[in-house]
Amino acid sequence: MLNKKVEKKLVEQIEKEGYSSSLYLAMASWAENNGLEGTAQWMYAQSDEERMHMLKIVKYVNERGGQAVISSFDRPPSEFKNVKNMFDQVFEHEQKVTASINDIVEVCLNEKDFTTHNWLQWFVNEQIEEEASVSAIIDKLNLLGDHNLYLFDRDIMGLRGQQPASME
Ligand code: FEO
Question: For a FRET experiment, which of 2, 18, 90, 162 has its CA 20 to 30 Å from that of 48?
């Protein structure tokens, strides 16, 4: 049976991953409407990944005898200042998600739920990758500057593009 404190944290995380998926979907839509096809493709793929993260937690909670309650998600912004600002927001958001995952890790240790602690390591590693990939994109944007947005957009296209979301 899933520890109640751990369950509560995981249910909160379901909401956070769901919001992340909506946020990146909103960014994808904005990019698409602004002619940034590559950026939109990246954001759509990111949104799918976040939904996959959410599902992964839903299934784990239910499998362990908890109840994966689904809440409504906050409405994400629909306007973004520019591409650089948008990716800065992604980076900031991912740092918050990392902190939130670390928080669950801490609760697992306090509650001696070593099974969930072990299972959570996938998310710990995923956050390292996500922060690194967004940080690399921001470096690229800084290098190219605003006047080379077309080049940036072509460059980012296919970076993760059509890859199907993986549950591994
Ligand atoms: Fe699911 Fe980007 O953290």
Answer: 2
Q: Which domains does the chain have, with CATH numbers?
A: 4-72+81-160 (1.20.1260.10)
Per-residue pLDDT band for 145 (boundaries 50, 70, 90) equals confident
Task: Please state the rounded mean pLDDT for residues 62-71.
Answer: 96
Q: What is the pLDDT of residue 9?
A: 98
Which protein residue's CA is at the shortest distance from atom 1 of ligand 1?
50
Answer yes or no: is 17 a known binding residue: yes
Burial group, residue 52, by CB count within 10 angstroms (0-12, 13-18, 19+): middle
Distance 49 CA to ligand 1 centre (A): 7
Asked whether 50 lines ligand 1 (CB < 6 A), one says yes
pTM over 0.85: yes
